[in-house]
Amino acid sequence: MQSQAERDTSTPRVVIVGGGVAGLETALALHHLAPDLADVTLVAAEPEFAYKPMVVAEPFTLQPAQRYDLAGALAELEMRFVCAALQEVDPPGHRILLSNDEELPYDILVVGIGGRARPAYERAETFWAGRSDLPIDDLLDEAGDAPGSTLHFVVPPGCSWPLPLYEVALMSRRRSEERGPYGVLLKILTPESSPLGVFGTVPSDAVAELLRARAIEVECGVNLVEEPAGLRLIPGGGLLSDGPVIALPTIVGPSIAGLPADEAGFVPIDLHARVRGVEDVYAAGDGTNFPIKQGGLATQQADAAAEHIAARLGASLEPRAFDPVLRGQLITGADSLNLRHDLAGGRGEGGASLDYLWWPPGKIGGRYLAPWIAGTTPDEDLEPPVHPMDVEVSLPHEWHREPLGL
Predict the structure, then answer these.
(1) Alpha helices (H) along 314-381
(2) Residue 157 in this model has a pLDDT that exceeds 80
(3) Per the structure, how many domains does the chain have?
(4) How far is CA 140 from CA 150, 172, 286, 328, in A?
(5) Are strands 216-220 and 125-126 parallel, antiparallel or unpaired?
(6) I need a surface site. Which of 33, 45, 49, 299 has the fewest CB within 10 A?
(7) Domain membership of residue 178 as a residue range
């Protein structure tokens, strides 16, 4: 078998690094937009693509999230797969160095490596994006025995995507009512000005009403800092001593050797996902300097990169710039609240609905990834075939009469 360097170099070589949402969306987009126009290789440290947004439900349902074999998926796209970690990018040499000591040349490189998660607090149970073993029953028992019978859910400072913590709190309420201990107080502590305020006024109001219906308290505009004496609430200054804590991690940049990075290690990109100051290199996903780290936004950055690359390869299209639209599906226990907001502004205060707000419906609304997972054909956009009515202020009465019955 020929090595990568020995293959015919007359066809442009596109190398995608990262087997997560951004990397796979880029591969699917190029397959759709520029078939047979490039020799595409995807490099990833893990052999599987894990649908991480659904991992949040594993501790409660005991059902594993979807996982897909990357080698098989890419073979169907007539692309190659290399299982190795990225060590360094050499832009002048147009090559990357891998953990298996292989050097891979490229004409165009797309880096889809995510950020690096770090525990925000030593005294908290960290809920990782890929974690499926959260000991929720033990934490509920511990909260029931604590002086204040409280289980805290903490959004750390600088966290730009707190939605998974709200899901854990909602599913914890359902679990506590199903198995006990009963009477445990669930409380969210967050620096946000309102619950999931990143989605805009209408969705935030809907989330706040849902939390009230599920008897989950929220304290906004606060931070938790760790000191030798314990976890201290700012402002207020009191030590948190009345129950266990579940916290999201903080995210730092990947700090990729050979590529520019900001002070936090994130790769700077423009609106076409081109890495600033480097020729022929694109980046997408949580490892970039876009402030909100979320799977749907990662697919939109990947689409911007893929369209720009496809146009360079000769495809007949006008590449569109990254125009961020935030789509989030909040799992509430047995149902979901769908949230949508145009981050660029000028298009309202967001929408919230128990019905779908994008198509095909799913946790990640990727133009190519979502249809691939659903087994359908990609469409031009994610607009639903029949647009549902948005929830303006109040949720259905059933959420109040039987808030745990959904």
Answers:
(1) 369-374
(2) yes
(3) 2
(4) 9, 8, 32, 27
(5) unpaired
(6) 45
(7) 119-249
What is the helix (H) or strand (E) element at residue 80, kind and residue range? Answer: strand 80-83
Q: Does 110 share its domain with 185?
A: no
> What would the two tokens of residue 57 be?
């439900």
CA distance 302 to 406: 35
Choose among 84, 90, 89, 69: nearest CA to 24: 69
Is the alpha carbon torsion for 237, 241, 243, 244 positive or negative? Answer: positive
Contact 330, 337 (CB under 8 A): yes
- CA 220, distance to chain mean position in Å, is 22
Q: Please, what's the b/e burial string for 226-235 (b: 16 or more CB within 10 A of its CB; e: otherwise)?
A: beeeebebee
Residue 42 included in any domain: yes
User: Which secondary structure element, helix H or strand E, spans residue 171, and what is its range?
Assistant: helix 163-179
Which residue is listed with tokens 């929720």?
A: 136
Residue 291 has pLDDT above 60, yes or no: yes
- The Cα 25–Cα 30 span in angstroms is 9
In whole angstroms, give the CA distance from residue 369 to residue 86.
23
Distances (CA, A) of 46 to 18, 70, 104, 105, 373: 9, 9, 18, 21, 19
Q: Is the residue at 357 inside a domain? A: no
Contact 251, 293 (CB under 8 A): yes
